[in-house]
Amino acid sequence: MKSERRKSRRWKTWASVAAVVVALALPVRAAAEDVDKAANDAGLGLATIVANVFYIPVKVSYAAIGGITGGLGYVLTGGNEEVAKKVWVPSIGGDYVLTREMVAGQQPIEFKGRSDPDM
């Protein structure tokens, strides 16, 4: 009888210990995942900033040159707006700033503007 009680008590003790270990391990794992996610987000944010340091000046220069070129095309063709738009839309349109989603590859980067607004 005593041996059955001891076995029952041991089993209850081991079950309690296992439950406590599982309960303690779950928050630690979740906290570790939160730290990994925060580090990933911080790295992605830094990459976005660095990418924009190079991207923005290039895009603004491209748009300025396209604006001037389109203006010259407009003047040289006697006010033909279609000629100017063929230069203005691709050069002046598009994204001027990269977002976190663009750097992560979740959203496309549109350096040039779209000629067809339905696209």
Explain what you see.
With 119 residues, the chain is mostly helical. The protein has one domain (2-104). 77% of the residues lie in helices and 0% in strands. The protein contains three helices and no strands. It has helices spanning 2-76, 81-92, 100-104. α1 runs antiparallel to α2. The longest helix has 75 residues, at 2-76. The radius of gyration is 31 Å and the shape is rod-shaped. The N and C termini lie far apart (81 Å).
How do you describe this structure in short?
This protein has helices at about 1-75, 80-90, 100-105.
Arithmetic mean pLDDT: 83
Overall domain count: 1
Percent strand: under 5%
Count of distinct strands = 0
- Radius of gyration (CA) equals 31 Å
Annotation field: number of helices: 3
Low-confidence stretches: none
Structural class determined from secondary elements: mainly alpha
Shape estimate? rod-shaped
- Give the biggest sheet: none
- For the termini, the CA-CA separation is 81 Å
Helicity level, as a percent range? over 70%
Give, in order, the helices and strands.
HHH
Topology:
Layout: H1 2-76, H2 81-92, H3 100-104
Helix pairs in contact: 1-2
Features:
119 residues, mainly alpha, 3 helices
